[in-house]
């Protein structure tokens, strides 16, 4: 990465294979995150991987999700318990790995392609309460659920996708990302008909997505 422009994980895997190093893309994605690799604008205007040599070791191992949202999140769309995230080409697995490591209680899991991440969220419960995520289910199980929201008179399942989308939008500050050869798409979230759009700065509490202390 320091010696030549590398535009994608597949290109990096080919370069490593030429040097006799065989590595899976999943391992490569984790390793790129661990060394603090990120996509930056190269001399020709395209996005290439780079490592910030000024980062301390602790910072390299643990890049904040906020930083990745600011630099890699192109668009966000939510529908029910599903969220679709778009990134620059080759960055989806890096972003998904960072999201997995956040261990957000509302997130069940992620699936990453080249420039798209599918996030599966847990359905949350609404009703009288403070709108925070509890540490477990009412029956003592392991799956955390959202405590009822203020003003709700009855408990019931609430799709988790729009709330997660709003949280990621806050981290990205709602800015559009430019991808070479692709028109810039405003970072946004689309909810099911009648639910209204969730935009950066909407009223979903950030506490709903604080890291699970356990």
TrEMBL record:
<dbReference type="GO" id="GO:0005737">
    <property type="term" value="C:cytoplasm"/>
</dbReference>
<keyword id="KW-0238">DNA-binding</keyword>
<feature type="compositionally biased region" description="Gly residues">
    <location>
        <begin position="128"/>
        <end position="139"/>
    </location>
</feature>
<comment type="similarity">
    <text>Belongs to the ArgR family.</text>
</comment>
<dbReference type="Pfam" id="PF01316">
    <property type="entry name" value="Arg_repressor"/>
</dbReference>
<dbReference type="GO" id="GO:0003700">
    <property type="term" value="F:DNA-binding transcription factor activity"/>
</dbReference>
<keyword id="KW-0963">Cytoplasm</keyword>
<keyword id="KW-0804">Transcription</keyword>
<feature type="region of interest" description="Disordered">
    <location>
        <begin position="182"/>
        <end position="214"/>
    </location>
</feature>
<dbReference type="InterPro" id="IPR036388">
    <property type="entry name" value="WH-like_DNA-bd_sf"/>
</dbReference>
<keyword id="KW-0805">Transcription regulation</keyword>
<dbReference type="GO" id="GO:0051259">
    <property type="term" value="P:protein complex oligomerization"/>
</dbReference>
<dbReference type="InterPro" id="IPR020900">
    <property type="entry name" value="Arg_repress_DNA-bd"/>
</dbReference>
<dbReference type="GO" id="GO:0003677">
    <property type="term" value="F:DNA binding"/>
</dbReference>
<dbReference type="InterPro" id="IPR020899">
    <property type="entry name" value="Arg_repress_C"/>
</dbReference>
<protein>
    <submittedName>
        <fullName>Arginine repressor</fullName>
    </submittedName>
</protein>
<dbReference type="InterPro" id="IPR036390">
    <property type="entry name" value="WH_DNA-bd_sf"/>
</dbReference>
<feature type="region of interest" description="Disordered">
    <location>
        <begin position="128"/>
        <end position="162"/>
    </location>
</feature>
<feature type="domain" description="Arginine repressor DNA-binding">
    <location>
        <begin position="2"/>
        <end position="51"/>
    </location>
</feature>
<dbReference type="InterPro" id="IPR036251">
    <property type="entry name" value="Arg_repress_C_sf"/>
</dbReference>
<feature type="domain" description="Arginine repressor C-terminal">
    <location>
        <begin position="70"/>
        <end position="124"/>
    </location>
</feature>
<keyword id="KW-0678">Repressor</keyword>
<dbReference type="GO" id="GO:0006525">
    <property type="term" value="P:arginine metabolic process"/>
</dbReference>
<dbReference type="InterPro" id="IPR001669">
    <property type="entry name" value="Arg_repress"/>
</dbReference>
<dbReference type="Pfam" id="PF02863">
    <property type="entry name" value="Arg_repressor_C"/>
</dbReference>
<dbReference type="GO" id="GO:0034618">
    <property type="term" value="F:arginine binding"/>
</dbReference>
């Amino acid at each position: 990465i320091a010696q030549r422009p590398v535009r994608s994980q597949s290109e990096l895997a080919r370069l490593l294979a030429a040097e006799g190093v065989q590595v899976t893309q999943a391992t490569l994605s984790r390793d790129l995150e661990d060394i603090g690799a990120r996509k930056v604008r190269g001399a020709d205007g395209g996005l290439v991987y780079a490592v910030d040599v000024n980062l301390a070791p602790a910072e390299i191992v643990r890049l904040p999700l906020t930083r990745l949202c600011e630099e890699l999140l192109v668009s966000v769309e939510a529908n029910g318990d599903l969220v679709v995230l778009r990134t620059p080409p080759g960055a989806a697995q890096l972003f998904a790995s960072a999201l997995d490591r956040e261990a957000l209680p509302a997130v069940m899991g992620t699936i990453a392609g080249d420039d798209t991440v599918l996030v599966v969220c847990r359905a949350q419960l609404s009703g009288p309460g403070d709108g925070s995520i509890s540490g477990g289910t009412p029956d003592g199980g392991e799956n955390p659920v959202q405590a009822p929201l203020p003003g709700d008179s009855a408990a019931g399942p609430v799709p988790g996708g729009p709330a997660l989308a709003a949280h990621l939008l806050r981290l990205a500050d709602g800015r559009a990302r430019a991808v070479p050869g692709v028109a810039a798409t405003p970072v946004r979230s689309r909810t099911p008909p009648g639910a209204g759009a969730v935009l950066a700065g909407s009223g979903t509490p950030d506490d709903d997505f604080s890291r699970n202390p356990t």
